[in-house]
């Protein structure tokens, strides 16, 4: 089983942390701190496995983000890499060319995607499309226009905040 | 300013220039959120929680949002619910009281009409459920396992997994439902239900047996995954649902373990997976890896096993480091089962020690320890030592330990063993466990034939490098202990032996004291070592002087331990005669059979068995010849050390006291000659040449009042001569009391037979560890001709044991200082009670004279 999943940026900032085992806050921050240091120090073309205390840590880098998984001794390291990849694929499809900024500004959504791929430390769904379909949740019952704006907003987040606000005002 | 939504907040935080700014902003925002929570503003709640969760991820406290998350969960809106549950998952865990409040929300939502709401509740439960919550909601979960909705079924299966992890006895609860789930067509449901079943089988062997029937079903599922062509829904680079394949393989592993029939059923499919899976991509290798693990664990036929090990061999040659990592890791498990299969890959494994990747190096290192055996110990240890030179510091401690253990177990000879330890002391002297160091010292102490070699190697090593702590300690100890060997033989290591002077040795050791690497421990070692060196006879007085000056310096050291040592050593220097004894070579720490054998040559053995008839003088000559002449190259000190061991060596030298002598001995330098059964009933005084006119029973009037005369009525009041030389005679009179068996009062009498007085007499005695000794002061340290001085001792010995004494006498007579050491075991057995038969035998043979090796130290 996966004990925890961390998303760490190349600058050493935590972007997402999911814990499947109970740990106190101190232990958690210790792990985050230690692994950030160790993972960032890894050279390219080394293997994707680290040994940290009694856990094996599988990590993989996608662009500027490191996806880090602490797993138990019995776990298949190679398959854990595939699970990470599966999560990234679903994120990518969900956000459409996902970037680190997507995950920063929509961190709740990143968690929601994860909840459809891994729960209780085990992979839940092996089909990408099913996971993707389920992440969106129930069909909205609000006017379509509203959703149009929300979607626009998510694409324009880099633009000036006021501009989006004006868009909203204009449509209402 | 307060940010109106999450995005604004994130932007604000990202715009912060410094960490301090960021912290201030977060604090401000956190306070604003808190206030807003107090105002019970339900419209702002979603926004506030979202902001709070972001702040939480940045490492700030967010516990005050827990209750707000619960409120959010109660909202009818899905987005609120989702955020609420996310907050609960992030802010709460088993250890928090608030979690109990969540149970009700979860229960409500598990019965929600909307499957997404149920899904959220199940997901939350699966991630954070506590034991109590698991018991409360187990029935709900069981019900949902039978749901018609695959989305709910698969999540419920993982919830059941959480339940049985928290409350293993609930496993039975889910078996019926779990069996149904195994027949499910949906991959998601299959995936999570197989995970559930795997956990159940691990928890309970009975459930495992129950699920053995499912093996054909699992095999069929696996087969269809392997044989079906491209299925877009579950394809991962050309392989259909590797996640499910791996899960099935893992369950098969558990079911096949220790079960012939189940293993038989899965043999074919395992072979098929092992041969047909594409090994060019990571996905394929993950399946192959899992297959190998399964094959190794079940009762697979040999062909399949060979195939599995070959796959690992191929993995090892793979250029992908991940694959090599798992191969090394798996071979570590295999090595205990099938060492030969792993030995075949030895070279590749050793190559991995030089890999650029620390994870690979670590695994390879573990594996190479396991590979060492008698045949390859030389090669492998050489490789390990080569690696030690470049190894990461974190490996070194473990490596030195493992190498040392391997050398201890498999060393072809002692020289190699010592060389190996010397090598790693030089390479990684700062990473050696204390136990390993003391094992090495023990080894050196037990290997007298290599002491010269070891000492000179260590001397050379220390001259070139004093920065390795353990090397310094080992070298200091050995040089201090065997300085005489070094001084006599020089450096024997090189082609042309080089002479070493006492000055060189002391210079070297003093340089350690002054070096920046010195710590308290090394200083202690050095102080002891130089003290020991200075007590050796071949050391010049200049150096002795230097040592005492140095010790005097340290007598004011601020480090208490050093100060104490220095003060003790300084005062030891003033006690000429005691100093020699204290600073003798240490006996090897722990006696081993081989060592005892070589030592017992000079062991005084009190035997009542027949021995060659020799008169006492003759045998005394023999004794001196045998005792003080160097025996097989050892300096006399060695004999002394052996003697010390005889007395203090504890239980292992017990045979020395038992009546029959165990070993046959040569007649010439046999000490037993001394104890030869002389004519019976001869009082000892008569046997000794006329230099001692005083009989044992003569009690002169000059006796001090504190030494009452022995009661003449006592039947066993016989005195035994313990020492007689240079006109000084010492006799011992033992006295026992029936009330206190085991306690022997001994009265020592000192007399001079010549005309000159013995002055400054110091009489010391020691007993074996099993006995206790108390001594009163001597009546008068100066013995004038004609007077008798006395000293009383009390020995408490275990009942039935023989009283043995080591006596040390020093005195000045006629301007000459004499110092002698004598072992005395001439009392009849039975003094300490019991042994009536022994007493009888002894009385037949009458009195024994005892008395052995004498090391004469006559200062000219």
From TrEMBL, chain A:
<comment type="similarity">
    <text>Belongs to the adaptor complexes small subunit family.</text>
</comment>
<dbReference type="Pfam" id="PF01217">
    <property type="entry name" value="Clat_adaptor_s"/>
</dbReference>
<dbReference type="GO" id="GO:0016482">
    <property type="term" value="P:cytosolic transport"/>
</dbReference>
<dbReference type="GO" id="GO:0015031">
    <property type="term" value="P:protein transport"/>
</dbReference>
<dbReference type="GO" id="GO:0030121">
    <property type="term" value="C:AP-1 adaptor complex"/>
</dbReference>
<dbReference type="InterPro" id="IPR022775">
    <property type="entry name" value="AP_mu_sigma_su"/>
</dbReference>
<keyword id="KW-0968">Cytoplasmic vesicle</keyword>
<dbReference type="InterPro" id="IPR044733">
    <property type="entry name" value="AP1_sigma"/>
</dbReference>
<dbReference type="GO" id="GO:0005829">
    <property type="term" value="C:cytosol"/>
</dbReference>
<dbReference type="InterPro" id="IPR011012">
    <property type="entry name" value="Longin-like_dom_sf"/>
</dbReference>
<feature type="domain" description="AP complex mu/sigma subunit">
    <location>
        <begin position="1"/>
        <end position="134"/>
    </location>
</feature>
<keyword id="KW-0653">Protein transport</keyword>
<dbReference type="InterPro" id="IPR016635">
    <property type="entry name" value="AP_complex_ssu"/>
</dbReference>
<protein>
    <recommendedName>
        <fullName>AP-1 complex subunit sigma-1</fullName>
    </recommendedName>
</protein>
<keyword id="KW-0813">Transport</keyword>
<keyword id="KW-0333">Golgi apparatus</keyword>
<keyword id="KW-0472">Membrane</keyword>
<dbReference type="GO" id="GO:0035615">
    <property type="term" value="F:clathrin adaptor activity"/>
</dbReference>
From TrEMBL, chain B:
<feature type="transmembrane region" description="Helical">
    <location>
        <begin position="837"/>
        <end position="858"/>
    </location>
</feature>
<dbReference type="Pfam" id="PF02883">
    <property type="entry name" value="Alpha_adaptinC2"/>
</dbReference>
<keyword id="KW-0813">Transport</keyword>
<dbReference type="GO" id="GO:0016192">
    <property type="term" value="P:vesicle-mediated transport"/>
</dbReference>
<dbReference type="InterPro" id="IPR017107">
    <property type="entry name" value="AP1_complex_gsu"/>
</dbReference>
<feature type="domain" description="GAE">
    <location>
        <begin position="715"/>
        <end position="828"/>
    </location>
</feature>
<dbReference type="InterPro" id="IPR016024">
    <property type="entry name" value="ARM-type_fold"/>
</dbReference>
<keyword id="KW-1133">Transmembrane helix</keyword>
<feature type="compositionally biased region" description="Low complexity">
    <location>
        <begin position="655"/>
        <end position="666"/>
    </location>
</feature>
<comment type="similarity">
    <text>Belongs to the adaptor complexes large subunit family.</text>
</comment>
<dbReference type="GO" id="GO:0030121">
    <property type="term" value="C:AP-1 adaptor complex"/>
</dbReference>
<dbReference type="InterPro" id="IPR050840">
    <property type="entry name" value="Adaptor_Complx_Large_Subunit"/>
</dbReference>
<keyword id="KW-0812">Transmembrane</keyword>
<keyword id="KW-0653">Protein transport</keyword>
<dbReference type="InterPro" id="IPR002553">
    <property type="entry name" value="Clathrin/coatomer_adapt-like_N"/>
</dbReference>
<dbReference type="GO" id="GO:0005829">
    <property type="term" value="C:cytosol"/>
</dbReference>
<keyword id="KW-0968">Cytoplasmic vesicle</keyword>
<dbReference type="Pfam" id="PF01602">
    <property type="entry name" value="Adaptin_N"/>
</dbReference>
<dbReference type="InterPro" id="IPR008152">
    <property type="entry name" value="Clathrin_a/b/g-adaptin_app_Ig"/>
</dbReference>
<keyword id="KW-0333">Golgi apparatus</keyword>
<feature type="region of interest" description="Disordered">
    <location>
        <begin position="647"/>
        <end position="670"/>
    </location>
</feature>
<dbReference type="InterPro" id="IPR008153">
    <property type="entry name" value="GAE_dom"/>
</dbReference>
């Amino acid at each position: 089983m996966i004990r925890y999943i961390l998303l760490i940026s190349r600058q050493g900032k935590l972007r997402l942390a999911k814990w499947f085992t109970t740990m106190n806050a101190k232990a958690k921050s210790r792990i985050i701190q230690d692994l950030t240091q160790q993972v960032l120090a890894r050279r390219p073309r080394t293997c994707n496995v680290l040994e940290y205390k009694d856990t094996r840590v599988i990590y993989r880098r996608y662009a500027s983000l490191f996806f880090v998984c602490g797993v138990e001794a019995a776990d298949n390291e190679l398959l854990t890499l595939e699970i990470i990849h599966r999560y990234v694929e679903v994120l990518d499809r969900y956000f459409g060319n996902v970037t680190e900024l997507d995950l920063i500004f929509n961190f709740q959504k990143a968690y929601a995607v994860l909840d459809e791929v891994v729960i209780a430390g085990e992979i839940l769904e092996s089909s990408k499309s099913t996971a993707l379909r389920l992440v969106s949740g129930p069909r909205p019952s609000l006017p379509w226009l509203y959703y149009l704006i929300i979607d626009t907003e998510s694409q324009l987040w880099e633009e000036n905040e006021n501009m989006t606000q004006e868009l909203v005002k204009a449509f209402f | 300013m307060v940010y109106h939504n999450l995005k604004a907040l994130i932007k604000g935080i990202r715009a912060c220039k410094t960490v301090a700014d960021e912290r201030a902003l977060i604090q401000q925002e956190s306070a604003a959120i808190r206030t807003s929570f107090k105002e019970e503003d339900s419209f702002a709640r979603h926004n506030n929680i979202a902001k709070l969760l972001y702040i939480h991820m940045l490492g700030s406290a967010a516990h005050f949002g827990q209750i707000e998350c619960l409120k959010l969960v109660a909202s009818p809106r899905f987005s609120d619910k989702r955020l609420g549950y996310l907050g609960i998952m992030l802010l709460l865990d088993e250890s928090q009281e608030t979690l109990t409040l969540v149970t009700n929300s979860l229960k409500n939502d598990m019965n929600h009409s909307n499957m997404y709401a149920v899904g959220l509740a199940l997901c939350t439960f699966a991630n954070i459920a506590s034991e109590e919550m698991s018991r409360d909601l187990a029935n709900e979960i069981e019900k949902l396992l039978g749901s018609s909705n695959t989305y709910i079924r698969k999540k419920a299966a993982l919830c059941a997994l959480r339940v049985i992890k928290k409350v293993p006895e609930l496993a039975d609860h889910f078996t019926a439902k779990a069996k149904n789930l195994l027949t499910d067509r949906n991959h998601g449901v299959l995936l999570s239900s197989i995970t559930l079943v795997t956990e159940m089988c691990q928890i309970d062997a009975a459930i495992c047996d129950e699920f053995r029937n499912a093996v054909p079903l699992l095999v069929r599922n696996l087969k269809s995954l392997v044989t079906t062509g491209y299925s877009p829904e579950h394809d991962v680079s050309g392989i259909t649902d590797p996640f499910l394949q791996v899960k099935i393989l893992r369950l098969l592993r558990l079911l096949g373990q220790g079960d012939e029939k189940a293993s038989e059923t899965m043999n074919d499919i395992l072979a098929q997976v092992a041969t047909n899976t594409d090994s060019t991509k990571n996905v394929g290798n993950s399946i192959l890896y899992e297959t190998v693990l399964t094959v190794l664990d079940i009762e697979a036929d040999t062909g399949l096993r060979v195939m599995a090990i070959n796959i690992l061999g191929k993995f090892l040659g793979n250029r992908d480091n991940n694959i090599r990592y798992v191969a090394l890791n798996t071979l570590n498990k295999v090595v205990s089962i099938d060492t030969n299969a792993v030995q075949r890959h030895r070279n590749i494994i050793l190559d991995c020690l030089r890999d650029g990747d620390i994870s690979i190096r670590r695994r390879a290192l573990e594996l190479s320890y396991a590979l060492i055996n008698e045949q390859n110990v030389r090669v492998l240890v050489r490789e390990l030592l080569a690696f030690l030179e470049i190894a990461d510091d974190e490996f070194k401690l473990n490596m030195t330990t493992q190498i040392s253990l391997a050398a201890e177990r498999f060393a072809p000879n002692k020289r190699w063993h010592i060389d190996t330890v010397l090598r790693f002391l030089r390479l990684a002297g700062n990473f050696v466990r204390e136990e390993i160091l003391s094992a090495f010292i023990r080894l050196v102490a037990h290997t007298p034939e290599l002491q010269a070699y070891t000492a000179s190697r260590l001397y050379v090593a220390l001259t070139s490098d004093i920065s390795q702590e353990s090397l310094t300690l080992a070298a200091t100890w050995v040089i201090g202990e065997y300085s005489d060997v070094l001084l006599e033989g020089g450096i024997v290591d090189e082609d042309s032996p080089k002479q070493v002077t006492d000055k060189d040795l002391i210079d070297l050791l003093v340089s350690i004291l002054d070096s920046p690497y010195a710590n308290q421990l090394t200083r202690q070692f050095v102080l002891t070592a130089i003290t020991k060196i200075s007590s050796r006879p071949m050391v010049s007085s200049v150096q002795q002087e230097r040592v005492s000056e140095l010790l005097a310096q340290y007598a004011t050291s601020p480090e208490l331990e050093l100060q104490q040592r220095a003060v003790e050593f300084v005062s030891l220097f003033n006690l000429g005669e005691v100093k020699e004894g204290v600073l003798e070579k240490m006996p090897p720490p722990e006696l081993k059979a081989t060592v005892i054998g070589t030592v017992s040559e000079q062991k005084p053995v009190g035997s009542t068995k027949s021995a060659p008839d020799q008169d006492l003088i003759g045998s005394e000559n023999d004794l001196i010849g045998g005792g003080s002449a160097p025996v097989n190259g050892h300096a006399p000190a060695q004999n002394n050390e052996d003697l010390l061991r005889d007395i203090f060596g504890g239980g292992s030298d017990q045979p020395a006291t038992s009546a029959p002598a165990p070993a046959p001995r040569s007649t010439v330098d046999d000490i037993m000659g001394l104890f030869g059964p002389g004519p019976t009933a001869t009082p000892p005084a008569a046997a000794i040449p006329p230099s001692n006119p005083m009989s044992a029973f003569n009690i002169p009037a000059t006796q001090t009042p504190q030494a009452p005369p022995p009661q003449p009525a006592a039947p066993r009041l016989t005195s035994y001569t313990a020492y007689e030389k240079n006109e000084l005679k010492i006799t011992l009179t033992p006295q026992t009391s029936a009330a206190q068996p085991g306690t022997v009062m001994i009265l020592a009498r000192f007399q001079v037979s010549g005309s000159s007085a013995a002055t400054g007499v110091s009489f010391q005695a020691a007993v074996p560890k099993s006995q206790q000794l108390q001594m009163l002061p001597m009546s008068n340290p100066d013995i004038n001709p004609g007077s008798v001085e006395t000293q009383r001792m009390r020995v408490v010995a275990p009942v039935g044991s023989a009283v043995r004494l080591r006596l040390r006498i020093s005195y000045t007579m006629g301007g000459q200082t004499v110092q002698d050491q004598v072992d005395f075991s001439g009392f009849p057995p039975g003094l300490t009670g019991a042994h009536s038969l022994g007493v009888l035998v002894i009385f037949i043979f009458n009195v024994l004279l005892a008395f052995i090796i004498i090391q004469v130290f006559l200062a000219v």
